[in-house]
Specification:
This protein is mostly beta strands. The protein contains 8 helices and 41 strands. The protein has a 15-stranded mixed sheet that branches. β37 and β38 (526-532) form a beta hairpin. The relative contact order is 0.05. InterPro entries: Pectin_lyas_fold, Pectin_lyase_fold/virulence, RHGA/B-epi-like_pectate_lyase, TAT_signal. This is Rhamnogalacturonase A/B/Epimerase-like pectate lyase domain-containing protein. Residues 67-171 form the Rhamnogalacturonase A/B/Epimerase-like pectate lyase domain. It holds the Pfam family Pect-lyase_RHGA_epim.
Length: 580
C-alpha cells in the first residue's frame, strides 16, 4: 500500500537540498564514487568559483540525487512529490547560453544531471519526469539511474491519455540511462514529444520498459522530433506501440532514428509504427512476440505519400522470433525510398509453425520502395499486394544470398495478389521479385536451383537476367550405362539454349558419346542431345529452343546417358540457359 501522505510536492526544494559537501559525502557513503566520480570530478566547480559565478548561473549544486528531494527507494510510499520537486529544480537551473555569440545559438542550457539511486520509486501522477507547462527551449538534461533493474520507476497512473514525460517543444539533447520503467496499467504512456523545431536529439541508454504500456513513445508536431537513439534498451511485457509517429499530428520532418542492440520481447504489440517520418536504422537486437496466440508487427511503415529523405529503412543483423501466425516482421506501404534487411534471421520457429505470411508490401496505385533482403535466413511467406493502377510504375525487389527455411521453391515463398480486383485483371501491375544466389534450407541435389525472376510472366515491365546452370553427377562427370541425373528448374522458367561441350581426347577408344536432356513427363520430351562417334573426338552441340517449364513434370529434367557409355566423362559440360 502506498502512503501518499509522506510525499509533499509543495515542500520547497531548498529544504530538501543537501549542501554541496554533504551531497558529495553522501555519494561516497553509498558507494557511488566509481559510478559518478568521473562526472563529478570533471564538472563541479570549486566553492570559490561558484561564489564568483555570474548571477545567471544557479549557485545550487549542478549534480543532484533524487534522494535529496525526499524520494522513497523502498517503493512503500509515493515518490511523485520528490520527482516534481526535482523537476522544478531542474527547470529553475536552466540558464541563458553563455556562449550564445560563439555558438550562434540563444537556446537556454540545462545545468542539472539528476541521479536516481538504486531502489524502487513509485509515481502515481503523470508528467512527474517532464511536464508540458515548461515551454522554455532548453538544451541539455541527463537523468541517470544505477542500472536496469537496480533503479526502478513504477508508474501507477490510471488515467488514460497521460504521459510520464511530456515534452512540449522545450527540451532537446536529452539523455536518460540505466533505469527500468514499469507500468501497472495498460492505459499508461511513457513519453509524448511535441516538436515545432525545438524537441529533438534524445538518447536512451540501457533503459528497460516493462509491464503494461499503451504507447512508450509518441511523436507529434510539424518539425524536428529527430535524431533519436536507443542503445541496448529493452521493451518487455505488453506494449501496444513502442515508437509511434501518427499520420494525424505527425510530420515527414521527423527523421533519423537509430536502435542499437535493442530487445523488443513482448507478449504482443507493434515495435516501430511510422505513419509519418522515417529514415530508420535498426542495428542488431532481438525481436520476439512471446505469446503463443497474440502477435503484432515489428515494423509498420504506413502511407504512400511521403517527402523525399524519410523513406529509408535499414535493419542489420537482427534476430526475430515469430511464435505464432499473428506475428509479423513488416507491413509497408511506402511508395519510394528503400527498405533493406541485411543478415537477419526470422527462422527460429520454422520447425514448429506452418508457413504463413509474416511480411506484407503494398503498392497503393504507386510503386513500392526498392526492397532488398541480403544474406538473410527467412521463414514463412512474403506477400506483395498491388492494385489496378500498379502497372503504371516500376517496382524493384530482390532477395540475394538468402536461405529459406520452409519454402522449397521461390514461388512457394511468395503470395502475389491484386487487392482491388482478384484474378488476372490488370495483372501487369504485379511486381517482378528477383532471387539471386539463394537456396532452400530443405533442398537437395535435385532441387538446388532456386534463383528466378518471379512474376515476369504477367508484369507489363520485366527486367530479366539469364541464368546458366551446369549439370554433373556425384562423381563430377556425366552419367554412364543408361544412368540419369535428375534436377529441377523453377516452375515457369523458359529454356532458351542447351549446350553439350567436351574437349577432344577426354574419352578414350572408339566408344560413342551418347547423351540427351529430357523432361520427366509420362512421355518425356527430349530437349537436346549429342551423339558423337567416337567420343574421343570431342563434341560441341548448341541447341537453341523455346521451352516453357510450366508444370512440375516439365520443370523436372534429367541428363541421360546411352547404354553403351561406360566411361565417366569428367571433361564434358551440359549447360542450360533459361530465364524466369
Amino acid at each position: 500500500m502506498i502512503d501518499e501522505s509522506k510525499s509533499d510536492p509543495d515542500q520547497p526544494a531548498s529544504d530538501l537540498q543537501a549542501s554541496r559537501r554533504k551531497f558529495l559525502i553522501g555519494v561516497a557513503a553509498t558507494g557511488m564514487a566509481l559510478v559518478t566520480g568521473g562526472l563529478l570530478h570533471r564538472n563541479l566547480l570549486p566553492a570559490d568559483e561558484v561564489e564568483a559565478a555570474p548571477a545567471s548561473v544557479p549557485k545550487e549544486e549542478i549534480y543532484a540525487s533524487l534522494a535529496d528531494f525526499g524520494a522513497d527507494p523502498s517503493g512503500k510510499t509515493d515518490s511523485t512529490g520528490a520527482f516534481q520537486r526535482a523537476l522544478s529544480f531542474i527547470e529553475k537551473a536552466a540558464v541563458q547560453n553563455p556562449a550564445a555569440s560563439a555558438a550562434g545559438d540563444n537556446t537556454h542550457r540545462g545545468r542539472v544531471k539528476l541521479y536516481v539511486p538504486a531502489g524502487s520509486y513509485v509515481v502515481t501522477k503523470p508528467e512527474a519526469l517532464m511536464r508540458k507547462s515548461y515551454e522554455l527551449k532548453t538544451l541539455g538534461l541527463v537523468i541517470q539511474g544505477a542500472g536496469r533493474g537496480v533503479t526502478q520507476i513504477v508508474y501507477r497512473n490510471k488515467t488514460p491519455g497521460c504521459y510520464l514525460l511530456q515534452n512540449q517543444d522545450a527540451w532537446m539533447f536529452l539523455t536518460i540511462a540505466d533505469i527500468e520503467f514499469i507500468s501497472t496499467e495498460p492505459v499508461n504512456n511513457f513519453m509524448y514529444s511535441f516538436s515545432e523545431g525545438g524537441a529533438q536529439n534524445y538518447t536512451f541508454e540501457r533503459c528497460l520498459w516493462n509491464g503494461k504500456w499503451n504507447e512508450v513513445f509518441r511523436l507529434e508536431g510539424a518539425n524536428n522530433n529527430s535524431e533519436m537513439t536507443w542503445f541496448h534498451c529493452n521493451f518487455a511485457g505488453e506494449i501496444k506501440r513502442g515508437v509511434y509517429a501518427p499520420n494525424k499530428g505527425g510530420s515527414d520532418q521527423f527523421l533519423n532514428y537509430n536502435f542499437f542492440a535493442c530487445q523488443f520481447e513482448v507478449d504482443q504489440g507493434d515495435y516501430l509504427v511510422f505513419e509519418r517520418g522515417g529514415n530508420i536504422n535498426v542495428w542488431g537486437g532481438s525481436l520476439i512476440h512471446t505469446s503463443a496466440k497474440e502477435g503484432g508487427t515489428f515494423f509498420k511503415l504506413s502511407g504512400d505519400n511521403h517527402a523525399f529523405g524519410v523513406q529509408r529503412f535499414l535493419c542489420v543483423g537482427a534476430r526475430f522470433e515469430h511464435r505464432n501466425a499473428q506475428s509479423r516482421l513488416i507491413e509497408c506501404e511506402w511508395s519510394d525510398g528503400t527498405v533493406s534487411f541485411v543478415s537477419c534471421d526470422t527462422a527460429s520457429q520454422a520447425y514448429r509453425l506452418a508457413p504463413s505470411v509474416n511480411a506484407v508490401f503494398r503498392s497503393q496505385k504507386q510503386k513500392m520502395p526498392s526492397i532488398s533482403f541480403q544474406g538473410c535466413v527467412l521463414a514463412g511467406k512474403h506477400a506483395y499486394r498491388y492494385g489496378n493502377e500498379s502497372w503504371g510504375v516500376p517496382h524493384n525487389i530482390v532477395y540475394e544470398n538468402c536461405e529459406f527455411a520452409q519454402g522449397l521453391t521461390a514461388d512457394s515463398f511468395l503470395v502475389i495478389a491484386n487487392e482491388e480486383t482478384p484474378g488476372d485483371k490488370r495483372a501487369g501491375g504485379q511486381p517482378v521479385v528477383r532471387f539471386r544466389n539463394c537456396r532452400s534450407a530443405i533442398a537437395d541435389h535435385e532441387t538446388a536451383f532456386f534463383d528466378s525472376d518471379q512474376g515476369f510472366q504477367h508484369s507489363n515491365r520485366a527486367q530479366l537476367s539469364k541464368k546458366l546452370v551446369s549439370i554433373r553427377g556425384a562423381e563430377g562427370g556425366f552419367p554412364i550405362s543408361g544412368g540419369k541425373e535428375p534436377f529441377r528448374l523453377p516452375v515457369g522458367s523458359v529454356i532458351l539454349n542447351v549446350r553439350f561441350l567436351c574437349r577432344k581426347g577426354a574419352m578414350s577408344g572408339m566408344q560413342a558419346a551418347d547423351y540427351w536432356l529430357e523432361t520427366s513427363e509420362g512421355t518425356p520430351t527430349r530437349l537436346a542431345s549429342v551423339l558423337a562417334t567416337p567420343g574421343s573426338g570431342g563434341f560441341n552441340v548448341v541447341q537453341d529452343l523455346f521451352f516453357e517449364c510450366d508444370s512440375e513434370a516439365k520443370a523436372k529434367l534429367r541428363l541421360c546417358a546411352g547404354q553403351g557409355v561406360t566411361q565417366v566423362n569428367k571433361a564434358a559440360y551440359c549447360l542450360i540457359e533459361y530465364i524466369g
